[in-house]
Design goal:
This protein is of the alpha/beta class and about 170 residues long. Helix content is about 25%, strand content about 30%. The chain contains 4 helices and 11 strands. The strands form 2 sheets. Strands 1-2-4-6-8-10 form a 6-stranded parallel beta sheet, with no helix packed on it. A 5-stranded parallel beta sheet has the order 3-5-7-9-11. The longest helix has 15 residues, at about 5-15. The model is unreliable at about 165-170 (pLDDT under 50).
């Protein structure tokens, strides 16, 4: 059994044996392509639905980030969400992240409409970091930065990091 399998096996064992609520979960690792184990962990955490803080720092190198499963969007009690090295391509509407106050997106691959739907699903969002240094955001339509701000009525802290002036790519 390789180190990665041993790590995920250990995480599964802890999650399965733990009887109380889980309030915070952090996973910081390199990923390659599809990592179904991460999807299983998120699914398990969504069944308990007690998670308040989720940090996923998934280094995929220059490749597209790990495609997050739909179960992520059923974590209704999250107050803080940190995503790095992930891909958000959910075409369906999100459940509302009614408790989310802090969101950090770094090196995320997504569509502009998906990003706007995500931000619109967070009515209490006060802190937002968009670290677009290594992100790819696919453009569709006439979306502007003004549309982004319309989704953030309660924002108190906004940090946007751009590496390239033009980060929004047209789809084919």
């Amino acid at each position: 059994m390789d180190k990665r399998c041993k790590l995920f096996y250990a995480i599964y064992q802890v999650l399965l044996m733990h009887e109380g609520p889980i309030h915070e979960f952090t996973l910081d690792m390199e990923v390659d392509g599809s990592c179904v184990e991460i999807d299983h962990i998120l699914h398990h955490l969504s069944k308990k639905n007690t998670l308040k803080i989720l940090k996923l720092d998934l280094d995929a190198g220059i490749d597209e980030g790990h495609r997050l499963p739909i179960s992520l969007f059923s974590l209704q009690h999250l107050t803080s969400l940190y995503l790095h090295g992930c891909a958000l391509y959910q075409q369906r509407s999100f459940n509302e992240f009614g408790c989310l106050t802090t969101l950090h997106l770094g090196s995320v691959w997504t569509y502009v409409k998906t990003l706007l739907r995500l931000l619109s699903s967070c009515p209490l969002l006060r802190r937002l970091t968009l670290d677009c240094e290594c992100s790819v955001i696919f453009r569709s339509g006439d979306t502007t930065i003004v549309d982004l701000f319309k989704c953030l009525p309660l924002i108190e802290y906004l940090n946007v990091v751009l590496f390239i002036v033009e980060i929004i790519l047209s789809t084919w």
